[in-house]
Write a structure and sequence with these properties.
2 domains; mainly alpha; 2 strands; about 130 residues
């Protein structure tokens, strides 16, 4: 089994679907990769030769990874950004810390999972916020 950007490529799905498992690569980008290299998007990962797999990896590095973060780099960037918001104690950071919806969604009837206090005591978090301000 080969790995591409830390994601195991098992080959059970079509090539374009396998490529969308990489964080930051969607359907449009995966089809673009297949079209640029002249590979049929409906073939399986296991049907590709080693040369084709290396070409896919190289093409992604040269054309996509230069422009935007993908894979583990994207995950790391998102975690850092979330930590910055929490450290700033801005509205979005506080919502992240309290594990509530951040983008204005209602919590009265929805967001049950987000409202659960997972591994944190809500009162302790609120007290720590009051001390900082």
């Amino acid at each position: 089994m080969t790995h591409l950007y830390g994601i195991p490529m098992r080959g059970k799905q079509r090539l374009w679907l396998e490529l969308t498992k990489i964080k930051g690569i969607g359907k449009k980008t995966s089809l673009l990769v297949c079209q640029a290299l002249g590979i049929e998007p409906t073939c399986l990962w296991t049907e590709l030769t080693d040369l084709q797999k290396r070409e896919i990896n190289r093409w992604i590095e040269l054309n996509i990874a230069k422009e935007k973060k993908i894979g583990k780099d994207l995950s790391r960037y998102q975690q850092q950004r979330k930590a910055e918001l929490i450290a700033l104690a801005c509205y979005r950071g506080i919502r992240h810390r309290l594990r509530l919806p951040v983008r204005g969604q209602r919590t009265h009837t929805n967001a049950r999972t987000a409202r659960k206090a997972k591994n944190t005591n809500l009162l302790e978090v609120l007290k720590s916020l009051k001390k900082k301000t």
